[in-house]
């Protein structure tokens, strides 16, 4: 029975000095630190002798740029899969994340009636279903090897919870899916056999949180 691993890689840090909730908007590239994070992930996968035979990414620029060093390290082309895209969000293009007082505007209340779905964006269940379909296709196409799928925090997190049998509704502050992290799903044949979580760029992420990295 073939053992196959599908790594869900979150993209690196994005250049976003205005702190916009960019969602699926075009034009959001990796920052200098984000580029370094992607290189750190690639080096880790090579140094640990992972058997990566395919690299597939969300079509968004930040995901494609994160995939580039990984694909180059293994001599692969980057594939694109729309199913790996960021979650849809009706607050896209705003700065509510950095200024939540904007949610006090009564015109926004119609989007906040059900945080468990969530009512302001793509339902968690739909995210998990499309992500799992992408995982299944990658697993079937590359059985017995390893595949890297580059996606975004929320789709990766709800996919993990789906495989673990947890409720998809959750506290966003408790997500274990930092920048450039790997959520690695292991399969024995068609059966999900477990997962591991790692942070190849964790040292840089911690430096960023302390404000010690200059992003151009």
From TrEMBL:
One Pfam family linked to the record: His_Phos_1
GO cellular component terms given for this protein: cytoplasm
GO function term, MF aspect, one: phosphatase activity
Cross-referenced InterPro entries: His_Pase_superF_clade-1 (IPR013078), His_PPase_superfam (IPR029033), PGM_Phosphatase (IPR050275)
SMART domains: PGAM (SM00855)
PANTHER family: BROAD-SPECIFICITY PHOSPHATASE YOR283W-RELATED, PHOSPHOGLYCERATE MUTASE
Protein name according to UniProt: Histidine phosphatase family protein
Taxonomic path: Bacteria, Bacillati, Actinomycetota, Actinomycetes, Micrococcales
